[in-house]
Amino acid sequence: MESRFDLFATETGTKIGKRFAGLGMALHQTSLPSITAELVSLRASQLNGCGFCLDMHVKEAIAAGEDPMRLHLVAGWRETTVFTEAEQAALAFAEEGTENVSVSDETWANVRKHFDDEQVAALVCLIGLINAANRMAVITHQKGGSYQAGALSEYNR
């Protein structure tokens, strides 16, 4: 399947892309652990079938020092012992926020147990943002494989 369209080759796509990158940067400047943010983004991208975002978030996580083995296990996180309770809560939150219209009271309570108000705000915004980014990339058939860690930081200039 070929890419359908280079969104970033347009003035509109570039403007929106810069804002998305800025929002991503703002989320990484919160107290939410950056690896938690990458795990959440990776899981949502898996569920949405977004090759571009999978490529990006794996490479960004590795560049930040994450163990590649943990990244390989994100898809089956419930069946592993490598994620903290807080990361498990965030992954469940990401799954429900991606697949469902709402999030269960149980998942919400578990997220609230592990994250403070600022971190919950960051998680909610991150799940919304990654799902929007996934949808744009999937609609235009953006391919994974060529992303270079740090590449989107150019949009913050």
TrEMBL record:
Residues 17-96 form the Carboxymuconolactone decarboxylase-like domain. Signal peptide: none annotated. Pfam families: CMD. InterPro entries: AhpD-like, AhpD_core, CMD-like. PANTHER family: 4-CARBOXYMUCONOLACTONE DECARBOXYLASE FAMILY PROTEIN (AFU_ORTHOLOGUE AFUA_6G11590), BLL7811 PROTEIN. This is Alkyl hydroperoxide reductase AhpD. It comes from Lentzea flava. The lineage of its organism: Bacteria, Bacillati, Actinomycetota, Actinomycetes, Pseudonocardiales.
